[in-house]
Amino acid sequence: MGARRASKGKDGDRRIGRRALIVGGAATAAGTAVLARDELARLWWRVPGVDKPREQGAVDFTGARWVAASDANWRRADRPDDYGIDMVIVHVTQGSFDSAVRAFQDPGHKAATHYIVGQDGRVTQMIRELDVAYHAGNRDYNERSVGIEHEGFVDRPQDFTDEMYEASARLTARICARYDIPVDREHIIGHIEVPGTDHTDPGPHWDWDRYMKLVRRARTAPSTPSTPSTPTAPTRA
């Protein structure tokens, strides 16, 4: 979500590419083509009857609550095996926590982030990190990043609470640890920094110096590695 400079543009990651559409036929027509290993790794799950085993309702960040986004707002993948993850992208909802959850559950919205962090520090996960969320407005950035929304408005600095900063920093630190992402501003960026975006979030009031210090502190603090947890009871906003 987040503030925009112009009217809503189309996310180039919403449509399956031509190669994905023909992979079934190419794979079954022996001798007609040779598909590269990385292409097969990215598309193998599209073959009828093949699905990556995953536990319904599991979360990647301990303490997060699971609420599933509409499957129109993301696409199934096998990250980081098919797409390496090397970036965290910070968003601001331009609305309430509950309105963001409702938007991401709406198939017509055509966008969602992996996580939403509330002003009270609660964390909700709506898309698994192994899957590609439509959040950045740039296909390449979607495939290589984890997106985190923050409850509030870009022009209201009071919306960015201590609880939000601290909870989000812990979340980002665990993501960086899991995928060996450097904790710097080249790899932890705002939505406004994504090439081609029309969004301006997290805006001028997001305190990057403070946030990065909190992420570094959380990254170096002793912690049990965050792995997919047991399912939590799904909720609706």
UniProtKB/TrEMBL annotation:
Residues 74-203 form the N-acetylmuramoyl-L-alanine amidase domain. CDD domains: PGRP. It holds the Pfam family Amidase_2. Keywords: Cell wall biogenesis/degradation, Hydrolase. Residues 220-237 have a biased composition (Low complexity). Residues 218-237 are annotated as: Disordered. It catalyses: Hydrolyzes the link between N-acetylmuramoyl residues and L-amino acid residues in certain cell-wall glycopeptides. SMART domains: Ami_2. It is an enzyme of class 3 (hydrolase). InterPro entries: Amidase/PGRP_sf, Amidase_domain, NAMLAA_amidase_2. Its EC number is 3.5.1.28. This is N-acetylmuramoyl-L-alanine amidase. It comes from Streptomyces viridosporus T7A. The lineage of its organism: Bacteria, Bacillati, Actinomycetota, Actinomycetes, Kitasatosporales.
